[in-house]
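seq as requested:
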Amino acid sequence: TRRLLRGLRAGFTVEQFTEDLLEHQLTGRLLRYDPKTKQVSRIADGFSFLNGVALGPDQTWGAAAEMGAYRLWKIFVKGPDAGKKVLFTDSLPGFPDNVKYSKERRVFWVAIGSPRNPLVDDLAGKPWVRSLIPKLPKAVQPAPERHGYALAIGEDGKPVESLQHRAPDSYSPVASVLERDGWLYLGSFRVGGVARVKL
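struct tokens:
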């Protein structure tokens, strides 16, 4: 089977995701890797920090999270529309991370790493100021809010459920959401262990 990969902008490591977000370049892309031929091909490009991607119900298209622009794209990976991208959900309430499709509910679970930050939004049209932020001491840089957040988006691109826990001890940032047998399993790149929430 073919695997879908996401491209990282050259020059940034995974640990430098904040710098990549603030730079706001449209260098994100969705790639296809064929293990038989060992060839990589581009499916779609022109994204600001493309992050999670999950194939939909018929495997011909996937929902992909554009973290830098707070939106999801429907990207066709097979058939006559392969490579076509259509806006799926716009103006998400936070930074979308990984995406997982649930066959049980027929929804895409989107991990929201942090709610939107008004300061980051205000600097959207000021690339020079944005480029200075990573050079500041970490203590004065905009920090993600402690806010556990999982969002379910239907196959039509409309929100179905919004599960949130805003507290200093919340399991956050949520980086992945997986539904199985009536439970949600949450993963994080900062918090140890896996959280489990009954639906």
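The helical segments are 17-23, 118-122, 127-132.
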